[in-house]
Amino acid sequence: MPKNTRSPAGHTNPPLWAGQNFLTSGPVIRQLLDVTTINRTDSVLEIGSGKGHITRELLPRCKNLLAAELDPALCQKLTERFGRSEGFQMHQGDFLRMPLPAGPYKVFANIPFGRTTEIIRRLTEGKNPPSAAWLIVESGAAKRFAGKPADTLTSLRLRPFFQLRIAAFIPKKEFHPAPRVDAALLELIRRPQPDLPMEDRTAYCAFLEQGWKQGLTNMLTKKQISTALRLEGLPPAEESATMKYVQWLCLFRCWQRMGKNKPGSHLPLPKSRKPGLCRAKAGRRPTKKRG
Fold first, then answer.
1. Which of 35, 64, 73, 194 gives 43 a disulfide partner, CB atoms 3.0 to 4.6 angstroms apart?
2. How far apart are CA 49 and CA 67, in angstroms?
3. Closest by CA position to 20, among listed 40, 47, 43
4. Residue boundaries of the structural domains of the chain
5. Which residues pair with 88 in a beta bridge?
6. 107-145: per-residue pLDDT in tens?
7. 46, 54 in Cβ contact below 8 A?
8. SS3 of 219, please?
């Protein structure tokens, strides 16, 4: 994406914000905030507050605002501008290293596009995930996380615990400097009652990864697969890349009950994966060879 590489007078190296794409239009920011559920009773975390364009619009809409920004120079300007505002708190540092808020909170942020996966992983796999998050990301990333037009490994890993959708599309011309692609507002709403208990998350992610890459018959028999789906009133399983979330969820529950009794159905975690985390790379839909 195009980078703002211009350095302030007297500076040899560009500042940290030089690679960011800022959303500066007040009307556009307000339109995006209007599709959220943020209200005057909420505590909100803003990741990468930048020059304060979104901060300015968020403050009147929430009770408390925690602004996280890596660049010390921008932090100083944000503190000078908003430091006396009621409910405003500034955190200078890398969001990926800071503790998540202790109480209930929501997130609204124009995040660095190059760190989308890391930031979403930090929010969704932390000890206290937000009740809701709205993140401005590249449109392609938004589609991958929201599972549009079809589910990916990325969306399937999140679906038991979050509802995901693309809340809005944002033309690239609204940013300064403009990125090479359009952006979107990705919405993540934490399920009050998740489809799976959190302690099953690691096994579920491993099941998805192996089923997606190697096929479901490595873990379940064909009869187990067809019977489980039929009893739940779901369509038969075809290629893994065309299956819907409810089919994957049904078959994972079937594997928990019966698949472990099939020889070779054990799902060892990759050595690099820490217990309790889903850290496999995002998957895309395999393409069929034409011949």
1. 64
2. 6
3. 47
4. 16-190, 198-261
5. 65
6. 999 999 999 999 999 999 988 999 999 999 999 999 999
7. yes
8. coil
Q: Please tell me whether residue 14 adopts helix, strand or coil conformation.
A: coil
Given a contact cutoff of 8 angstroms between Cβ atoms, the answer to whether 7 and 15 are in contact is yes
Q: Environment class of residue 281 by beta-carbon count within 10 Å: exposed (0-12), middle (13-18) or buried (19+)?
A: exposed
- Rounded CA gap, 79 and 49, in Å? 11
Q: How many CA atoms lie within 13 A of 146 on its CB side?
A: 25
Average pLDDT, the chain: 86
Q: Name 178's Cβ contacts closer than 8 Å, sequence gap at least 6.
A: 2, 21, 172
How far is CA 276 from each of CA 123, 125, 187, rounded to the nearest angstrom?
14, 8, 24
Q: Which residue has the tokens 């009893």?
A: 231
272-276, long-range: CB < 8 A, 24+ apart: 273/202, 275/202, 276/125, 276/201, 276/202
Q: Please give the Cα distance from 143 to 75 (Å, whole number).
A: 32
Give the Cα separation of 163 and 187 in Å (integer): 8
Coil/strand/helix, residue 192 = coil
- Per-residue CA distances from 106 to 39, 70, 110, 186, 220 (Å): 10, 20, 14, 13, 39
Cβ neighbors of 201 (< 8 A, separation 6 or more) are: 160, 161, 276, 278
Between CA 128 and CA 154, with CA 211 as vertex, the angle to 5 degrees is 40
- Asked if residue 172 lies in contact with residue 181, where contact means CB atoms within 8 angstroms, the answer is yes
Q: What is the pLDDT of residues 41-85, one digit of tens each?
A: 999 999 999 999 999 999 999 999 999 999 999 999 999 999 999
Domain 16-190: top CATH class: alpha beta
> Rounded to whole angstroms, how far apart are CA atoms 13 and 144?
35
